[in-house]
Amino acid sequence: MTRRPSIKRLEHRLEHAMWRVRLIALLPVVMSLLSSMATFILGTLEVTRALIKLGSYGMKGKGFIAVLSDVVTGIDLYLIGIALLIFGYGIYELLISPIEAAREEDTGGTGLLDIRNLDQLKEKLVKVLVVALIVTAFKAMLTIPITDGVSLAFFCLSVFLLALSGYVVTGDGLKLPKKG
Predict the structure, then answer these.
(1) pLDDT at residue 116, as a whole number
(2) How far apart are CA 115 and CA 141, in angstroms?
(3) Most buried of the four, 58, 92, 126, 150, by CB within 10 Å?
């Protein structure tokens, strides 16, 4: 009869040890938050560079494209920073502990950082990353030379696909019918 309580005690200790191991998730949380801050700083530097170019080039020819390209790069870096922020908060909320400050009434608590399950985390990350990809594609489209009808057709197709992806990612488009 003494085996039963010792097995329960061992099981209890093992469960507590397993529960503490989840704290290893603090490493990706901290690193993603630091990476988020780094991308926000890099985005700010890109936008600042664009403003400096604007002051020196003005709105002439290729200078306009260079300024716009730097601004779009800054926006892209901000979006990547937001994705990293969502990832860090989501991992913390899912594996470590709910963030009480986000749940307080005066802060709203409903938004990109309010993550209650893995599906919400995936959905929010996908939305931000698709927008970041759209911005990256837009930046690439700035430099596409349109010399003939074929290049114009490909450019128009690219614009259409970007618009379609934006429509789909909002959740309004292409919903599958529910069964039942």
Answers:
(1) 83
(2) 34
(3) 92
